[in-house]
Automatic annotation (TrEMBL), chain A:
It comes from Paenirhodobacter populi. This is ABC transporter permease. It is a multi-pass membrane protein. PANTHER family: ABC TRANSPORTER, PERMEASE PROTEIN, GUANOSINE ABC TRANSPORTER PERMEASE PROTEIN NUPP. Its main location: membrane. The lineage of its organism: Bacteria, Pseudomonadati, Pseudomonadota, Alphaproteobacteria, Rhodobacterales.
Length: 364, 530
């Protein structure tokens, strides 16, 4: 395969993939009698046209950053963590337990404790599949998918039978104390000048940015990260180097689970203020697409998460203000995943001839 | 060696030489092929006369395989034309090549392991929906070919039960069964013992006598001198010369291949073996399938001595290196500097081996020695990421590693000297230099080195051999494993020959010859000449 220049690989290919996904979506919208131009207008306007829209876009993006980073760390160890969904839900359980355990006096005291709770619970949920993969060679894709179902069932049982306050009808925990409410963008000094209306985006967004930096530091500056990447690229060479496969698989999967778990700070603590069923809302799966599109690099994950935040929020607006059903949002996301993930090489091959002629003309 | 090639030549070359103006069996005119920015073949023209053996020689990456792939329809040339027996021929795929009478024997055989010889031969050339008539027809045809060309193989044997030499014969039979009259062989002797290679050359000789045309691709000068009538030299995608073999010398060919004078022998002073560095006792390795691969190896390695392990690939040499390097589970004992090594094959054994003073240049640098997607500097840290000078607490000191890589690249003449280039971007020789620099500069007591010059160009071979001898002269023990008998003979101070997981015998290079080693490699006991 022709090697593309880095910028083409990082920017041009994803952009073309996106345009292809958009084009097909436009055709589908036309076929069901909608107006694609109007759809785009509503999406852009609803997601990016106002601080209010941005408040939602960034809120969704925050969740996707965490799950995208989680998938990224596992990917570098050669492990495909499909279990972000379950790890996020169990992470939410950790957040709920921390928030309900103690009448927190202030959010900045509750937040670090909740981060630890989310990370530990998320990591614990990844630990069993990781151990099975490291010691028994069980396929991580299969086991993590199974654990998603177990997590969902476990949470339902806990919410219905154990954690639901008596007298409450819906399966959810009690509301967290006021001291655990994370400041939204509309409450942060400085930002409140822009975000004048209440928005769900909250301080977790900054935790997500820190997490991006931490993952970069881990993967490209630390010894553990070096060992993870070495193992992910070549198990045989890692063995030659004396890198323990158990250590790499376990640590990468635990970190991955912890990151996926941490997304629940954003929604469970930052938005809902209690643990609900299906709190992760598919963010675990979108994390896979985000990691794929972000080329498994924290910066790429950040940008891809913004894009998916836009699609999520814009899609909701489209469903609200046009006669195009909200389900089309799923189609759009699916196409983006299809083109940026599965058909990545197809786009690359389409682009390659242009660079080939240019490169050979330049050399000879 | 020279005698043999001269007699072979006198018997065969003269009688059936075609008239000079007859159409060539193969004629290539101005073939060019580029992959991206790399010009793999540039304006190549060549005429191969029928009834001759034509050698194509060149370093790795010189474009030999590309050229043959074009001839066999795997690649389409960007420009140029192919003439078969004087007729312009389009070869868009291998089916067309077969129709044009071209047969190819690949370096890695394309045989179905659990099919019989007969089934493999008719595969893809069945004459109808029912197999029985095809098989009967093939059986008669095989008997004829066996008589004519010394190509005897049991038609009912399963491929997996055959030796490598016999498998190769099946490949040749496949081509002949499809009525090939032009046969291309790509590095055919890499996997053969010397007696098997001799047999192959006899087969090629018969083919030549029957008027078939043979294209022999190799990087071994000795084979070219021994069997070919004409030889073409390729360098950097170009055909630099075509000469009559009788009128050239190995030195001249080497110079044409590399573009400068090359020292084919290794200059080294006699060894002065010193203290005992490693003692291996009754070492046994059993693979995952339960087959015993090492059946009790006893070997001592001394400081200041290169011990060469000769043998046909697959006779336990790899397992010996793996057990020493720590990633195969073994029984028996290995002591290094009087300290016994753990043979349990733990995941961290690679590290403990390094700490014990063993450095390892593995046989398969693409799978073990390097991570191809990692940059050169990341590969320099492979296995040494815990070295104090490479780390700052839990973080890596990338700056220090990069600086060290620059130094290594300079001292080992790695080209291009770019620490940020991924390992896959270097040529085979430069990849090997990176591994060698990493391992040798750790100043180990024992260097394990497998196939040091496999896939390495001639120019770099000289350099690598020199470094190995230098390490020996610095009083280190070296265990050299190579399937290249020439390399073993010229580098080793002591030679141990392996066959079927055992050491058949130890010999001193000065007191043995290729014939004796060849017999040992084939498992024939010989009396040690003391």
């Amino acid at each position: 395969m022709t090697k593309l220049p880095k910028w083409a690989d990082m920017v041009l290919v994803p952009v073309i993939s996106l345009l292809l996904a958009a084009a097909i979506s436009a055709v589908v919208i036309l076929l069901i009698g909608g107006d694609p131009v109007e759809a785009v207008k509503v999406m852009v306007d609803g997601a990016l046209g106002s601080p209010y829209g941005w408040g939602y876009t960034l809120y969704y993006a925050t969740s996707f950053i965490f799950t995208g980073l989680g998938v990224t760390v596992a990917y570098h160890a050669g492990q495909f963590n499909i279990g972000g969904e379950g790890q996020a839900q169990i992470g939410g359980l950790g957040v709920a337990l921390v928030c309900l355990a103690f009448p927190w006096p202030a959010w900045w005291m509750a937040l670090p404790a909740a981060i630890v709770g989310a990370a530990v619970f998320g990591a614990a949920w990844a630990a069993v599949p990781a151990w099975l993969a490291a010691k028994r060679g069980s396929h991580i894709v299969i086991t993590t998918i199974m654990f998603n179902y177990i997590a969902a069932a476990l949470i339902v049982w806990l919410l219905v039978e154990v954690m639901r306050p008596t007298g409450q009808m819906d399966p959810a925990t009690a509301r967290f104390g006021a001291g655990t409410t994370l400041p939204g963008f509309h409450q942060i000094p400085g930002l409140d000048l822009i975000f004048t209306r209440k928005v769900p985006a909250n301080v977790t967004f900054f935790v997500a940015i820190l997490a991006c930096f931490a993952v970069w530091l881990l993967l490209w500056r630390s010894r553990l990260g070096y060992q993870i990447r070495a193992f992910g690229h070549s198990e045989s060479a890692a063995r030659y180097a004396g890198i323990s496969s158990t250590k790499v698989i376990m640590s990468a999967m635990l970190i991955s689970g912890a990151l996926c778990g941490m997304m629940s700070i954003n929604n469970v603590m930052g938005e809902a203020g209690r643990l609900l069923q299906n709190s992760s809302e598919g963010a675990g799966f979108i994390g896979i697409a985000v990691a794929l599109m972000g080329r498994n690099h924290p910066l790429g994950v950040f940008l891809a998460a913004l894009l998916f935040g836009f699609l999520y929020q814009g899609g909701a607006e489209m469903g609200l203000w046009t006669n195009i059903p909200i389900e089309l949002r799923l189609l759009l996301q699916g196409l983006v995943i299809l083109f940026t993930g599965a058909l990545d090489n197809m786009v690359r091959m389409m682009v390659a001839p242009f660079f080939r002629t240019r490169a050979s003309a330049g050399v000879r | 060696m020279t005698n043999r090639h001269e007699t072979a030549r006198q018997e065969t070359a003269t009688p059936d030489m075609p008239p000079p103006n007859a159409p060539a069996a193969i004629e290539l005119r101005g073939i060019s092929k580029a992959f991206g920015a790399v010009q793999a073949n540039r304006d190549i023209s060549i005429r191969v006369m029928p009834g001759t053996i034509h050698g194509i020689i060149g370093e790795n990456g010189a474009g030999k395989s590309t050229l043959m792939s074009i001839l066999y329809g795997f690649y389409k040339a960007d420009s140029g034309e192919i003439l078969i027996h004087g007729r312009e021929t389009q070869i868009p795929d291998s089916q067309a090549a077969i129709r044009a009478g071209i047969g190819m024997v690949f370096q890695h055989f394309k045989l179905v392991q659990n099919f019989t010889v007969l089934e493999n031969i008719i595969l893809g050339a069945e004459s109808g929906a029912l197999l029985r008539p095809s098989k009967a027809k093939a059986r008669t045809e095989l008997a004829r070919l066996a008589r004519e060309y010394e190509l005897d193989v049991n038609p009912d044997a399963r491929i997996e039960d055959l030796s490598v030499g016999h498998q190769q014969r099946v490949e040749i039979l496949k081509a002949l069964y499809r009525q090939a009259d032009i046969l291309i062989l790509d590095e055919p002797t890499g996997v053969l013992t010397p007696p098997e290679a001799d047999h192959l050359f006899r087969i090629l000789d018969h083919l030549r006598k029957q008027g078939k045309t043979v294209l022999l691709i190799t990087h071994k000068l000795r084979e070219i001198m021994e069997i070919t009538d004409t030889v073409s030299v390729m360098r950097r995608g170009e055909m630099t010369a075509t000469v009559q073999t009788a009128e050239t010398t190995p030195e001249q060919l080497a110079e044409l291949m590399v573009g400068r004078k090359v020292l084919l022998r290794v200059d080294k002073a006699p060894a002065r073996p010193g203290r005992l560095v490693a003692r291996i006792r009754d070492l046994r390795v059993t693979d995952e399938a339960g087959v015993e691969r090492l059946k009790g190896i006893d070997l001592t390695l001394r400081a200041g001595e290169i011990v060469g392990i000769a043998g046909v690939a697959g006779n336990g040499q790899s397992e010996l290196l793996e057990a020493l390097g720590g990633f195969a589970k073994a029984t028996g004992s290995i002591t290094i500097n009087d300290t016994p090594l753990d043979l349990g094959g733990q995941a961290s054994a690679g590290r403990t081996r390094r700490a014990a003073g063993i450095a390892h240049v593995p046989e398969d640098r693409h799978r073990l020695g390097l991570i191809l997607d990692f940059t050169a500097w990341e590969n320099v840290a492979l296995g040494y990421d815990d070295a104090p000078e490479y780390r700052r607490g839990p973080l890596m000191d990338n700056g220090a590693i990069i600086a060290d890589t620059r130094g290594k690249m300079d001292r080992f003449d790695v080209r291009p000297p770019d620490p940020f280039l991924p390992a896959r971007g270097f040529s085979g020789g430069n990849q090997q230099k990176i591994v060698l620099a990493r391992e040798i500069e750790r100043n180990p007591d024992l260097l394990l080195i497998g196939q040091p010059t496999r896939g390495v160009d001639i120019g770099a071979i000289e350099f690598i051999h020199k470094r190995i001898v230098e390490l020996r002269d610095a009083g280190k023990a070296v265990l050299l494993v190579s399937v290249e008998l020439d390399e073993i003979m010229s580098l080793s101070d002591r030679i141990a020959v392996m066959f079927d997981g055992r050491i058949m015998g130890e010999r001193l290079p000065a007191r043995t010859d290729e014939r004796e080693l060849g017999l040992l490699m084939a498992g024939v006991e010989t009396e040690a000449a003391t």
